[in-house]
Every structure is written in C-alpha cells, then in structure tokens.
Amino acid sequence: MFGAMSLLAGGIATGCGSDEESGGTTTAATEDVRLTQEQWAEYQTSREAFVSANTTARKRIDTCANVQDSKALQACVGNVYGELADATTALGTTLESFGSTVAGSCATALGGFVNYVGPYSASAGQIQSAADSGDLLDYQSAASDLSVTADAAKGEVEAFEKDCAPV
Known about the structure:
Blueprint: H1 4-9, E1 16-22, E2 25-29, H2 37-64, H3 70-77, H4 80-97, H5 105-133, H6 136-164
Antiparallel strand pairs: 1-2
Helix pairs in contact: 2-4, 3-5, 4-5, 5-6
C-alpha cells in the first residue's frame, strides 16, 4: 500500500565499502543523514494531523465498545476511522518522501516506522468497514488489531524521532 517494501528494497540505508582494510575485512561506512529542518517541519505537520485523528478514533473505541445495536454502532462511530485511515495514509506518504534523502540510523528508523503505517491504516479501514456494516464482532476484533499495532509501533516512532530529528 505504501510501498514500504520498495522503500526498503530501494536501499534507504546506504553504505559504501571502505578502502581501508583491517585484518582482511572491508569495513562498511554508513554516514548518518538526518531530516532537514524543512522535512522535519513537514513531518510535524503530518504527525499533528495523524495524532488528532488518532486521538479521536482511539477515544471512540472506548465510547462505542459497549454498543449492542448495529445502527447505534454506525451512529456512534460516524466516519472517524475513515478519517484516521486518511491521516495515516498522508503520514505514510510524507514518511516515504524522505526515503531517498536519509541514511544510516535515520534510514533504519524510517524503514521501521514505515513498516507500521500500512497495517495501521488497514486496521483503521477495517474498523470503519465493520462499523459501516454494523458488524459488532468485526468492530471489536478490528479495534483490538488497531490497539496492538499502535502499541507495537511506539518504539519505531520513538526511534525515528530520535534518529531523524535535525541536530
């Protein structure tokens, strides 16, 4: 969906062999190239839109968790997960645009973060589809998937922000 595989396969983490050999082993040198101030500002804008949509959607999981009627579920959910999927897609597009401009630990962290964007967006879409169809069991299952993916991604987001923020 977001081309995470092409981003990774395209070699966002670049390295060059060194001319120096130590003990018969060629060492690989990878320069850390972080985001520029402009890229960081672009990321912050996408991140803020995502965080806003995510906060609303995650609260809605709790609000709608005990709804027992399909029409009430549809009314409770509205389109918040569609909006979350859109914000996640936009964040993914922003992140992917950085792929060819970073290297080293930033490239590694970027790849890790991007790998969670597609599944998170898909989970949001699943919740929205379940709510739109009034399927209470699918809604609960998809909400659980979203929470698991969010929890798993936290470390990747932290690594990206630590390793890619301009210094």
